[in-house]
Specification:
The protein has one domain: OB fold (Dihydrolipoamide Acetyltransferase, E2P) (Beta Barrel). The chain is globular and about 50 Å long. The chain is built from three helices and six strands. It has 155 residues and is of the alpha+beta class. A five-stranded mixed barrel has the order 1-3-4-6-5.
Length: 155
């Protein structure tokens, strides 16, 4: 606890702020992927974030919808592997954006820029994710032996 407090105080003294967003949600539709004029892939994910809110004496389900923007290889992979209904984990940051609409009014928005997107396996692929006796995870991860595998680490 004290160590964490010291780290936070050091960050504050350096005037370094943290801009980090972590989301886990279900895609509401297939990601829309486009390419910029220089060929960079740009995409948008619509994530449904479910939670429970207390209303009176009972809890009710509530769904919040967020749009996550992804770029480059991240966008290409999202377009290739994600589909409506899939669960995805997104790590990213908040970014402000503004533009002038057709009526000449300046519009401001807060965007979520997805820097890392992980695809969570669906229940129908559960058999592919079960670890085998060798410890690999089937089709989701191919284990490559490294020169560091045989080194004993003291912790």
């Amino acid at each position: 606890m004290l160590r964490d407090t010291v780290i936070v105080l050091k960050i504050i003294r350096k005037k370094t702020m943290i801009n980090k967003v972590i989301l886990l949600g279900r895609l509401g539709k297939k990601p829309e992927i486009r390419h910029s004029t220089n060929g960079t892939a740009c995409g948008e994910l619509r994530l449904a974030l479910n939670s429970k809110r207390k209303q009176g004496d009972e809890y009710v389900d509530q769904t919040d919808w967020v749009t996550v923007k992804v770029f480059g290889k991240n966008a290409e992979n999202c377009g290739k592997y994600l589909d409506k209904g899939r669960i995805a984990s997104v790590e990213g940051k908040l970014a402000t954006n503004n533009y002038t609409n057709k009526e000449g009014v300046k519009i401001y928005s807060m965007d979520i820029i997805g820097e890392r997107v992980q695809f969570v396996p669906s229940s129908n692929t559960a058999q592919d994710t079960e670890p085998s006796k060798e410890g690999n995870y089937g089709k989701l991860e191919k284990r490559v032996k490294s020169e560091w595998d045989d080194i004993d680490v003291p912790f």
